[in-house]
UniProtKB/TrEMBL annotation:
<feature type="domain" description="N-acetyltransferase">
    <location>
        <begin position="8"/>
        <end position="164"/>
    </location>
</feature>
<comment type="similarity">
    <text>Belongs to the acetyltransferase family. RimI subfamily.</text>
</comment>
<dbReference type="InterPro" id="IPR000182">
    <property type="entry name" value="GNAT_dom"/>
</dbReference>
<dbReference type="InterPro" id="IPR006464">
    <property type="entry name" value="AcTrfase_RimI/Ard1"/>
</dbReference>
<keyword id="KW-0012">Acyltransferase</keyword>
<dbReference type="GO" id="GO:0005840">
    <property type="term" value="C:ribosome"/>
</dbReference>
<keyword id="KW-0689">Ribosomal protein</keyword>
<keyword id="KW-0808">Transferase</keyword>
<dbReference type="Pfam" id="PF00583">
    <property type="entry name" value="Acetyltransf_1"/>
</dbReference>
<keyword id="KW-0687">Ribonucleoprotein</keyword>
<protein>
    <submittedName>
        <fullName>Ribosomal protein S18-alanine N-acetyltransferase</fullName>
    </submittedName>
</protein>
<keyword id="KW-0963">Cytoplasm</keyword>
<dbReference type="InterPro" id="IPR016181">
    <property type="entry name" value="Acyl_CoA_acyltransferase"/>
</dbReference>
<dbReference type="InterPro" id="IPR050680">
    <property type="entry name" value="YpeA/RimI_acetyltransf"/>
</dbReference>
Length: 175
C-alpha cells in the first residue's frame, strides 16, 4: 500500500495539539468523533500514552521551519496488565504512506516497554484498511461487540495481539 512512504517523527501529544487532533477526529470519525471534553478527559485518565506524527526529514522541508502539521495520532491505555489501543488515525491526504503503521508500531513498542501481556483493540467490522493493518501485525479476532459504535450503530471486532508471543511487531520495520 505504502508506495511512497512518508518520513515521520513521533512526539507526545500536547494540549496545544487539541485543535488539530479534534479536526482530524471529525475528518476520520465523523459523528463518532471525540469532543474537546472527551479528549481532555481521556488524556487526564490514568495510564494513558498518546503520540502525534509529524512529517520529518525531506518531507518536513516543504512546511517551513517550525510549521509541521500533525498528520496522525494514536494512544493507548495501560491498566497494569494489558494495553488497549484507544485511537489511531492518519489524516486522509497522508493515508497509505506508512504513517498508520508507524503509529501502531509506536503503540506496540510502548506496550512492550510497559511489560503489557497483550495489546487489545476494537475496530469496526467494515473498516477494511484498519483490519488489514491489524492483521499484518498479528492481531487476532477475539469476538464481536454488537452496535459498539454509536451513533453509527456499527458492530466492532475485539482483537488482541499477544505481546509474549514474539519480539517483533508488524513487518518489523516501522516506517
Ligand atoms: C487505518 C488507518 C489508521 C491506516 O493508516 P495509514 O497511514 O493509511 O496506514 P499505512 O499507510 O501505514 O498502511 C498500513 C496498512 O494499512 C492497510 N491499508 C492502508 N491503506 C489501505 C488501502 N487503501 N487499502 C487497503 N489496505 C490499506 C494495509 O494493510 C497497509 O499495509 P501495507 O502498506 O503493508 O500494505 C487509516 O486508514 C485511518 O486513519 N482510518 C480512519 C480512522 C480509523 O479507522 N482508525 C482505526 C480505528 S480502529
Amino acid at each position: 500500500m505504502s508506495d511512497d512512504p512518508l518520513q515521520v517523527r513521533m512526539r507526545p501529544l500536547a494540549s496545544s495539539d487539541f485543535d488539530r487532533v479534534l479536526e482530524l477526529e471529525r475528518e476520520l470519525f465523523g459523528p463518532g468523533a471525540w469532543t474537546y471534553g472527551m479528549l481532555a478527559d481521556e488524556l487526564a485518565g490514568l495510564g494513558r500514552w498518546y503520540v502525534v506524527a509529524e512529517p520529518d526529514g525531506i518531507d518536513a522541508l516543504r512546511y517551513g521551519f517550525g510549521a509541521r502539521p500533525v498528520i496522525g495520532y494514536a494512544g493507548l491505555w495501560f491498566d497494569g496488565d494489558v494495553a488497549q489501543v484507544m485511537t489511531l488515525g492518519t489524516a486522509r491526504e497522508y493515508q497509505g504512506r506508512g504513517v498508520g503503521r508507524a503509529l501502531l508500531q509506536a503503540l506496540v513498542d510502548r506496550s512492550r516497554q510497559l511489560r503489557a501481556t497483550s495489546l487489545l483493540l476494537e475496530v469496526a467490522t467494515d473498516n477494511e484498511h484498519a483490519l488489514a493493518l491489524y492483521a499484518s501485525f498479528g492481531f487476532e479476532r477475539l469476538g464481536i461487540r454488537k452496535r459498539y459504535y454509536q451513533p453509527e450503530d456499527k458492530d466492532a471486532y475485539t482483537m488482541r495481539m499477544d505481546l509474549r508471543a514474539s519480539t517483533t511487531g508488524g513487518h518489523g520495520d516501522a516506517a
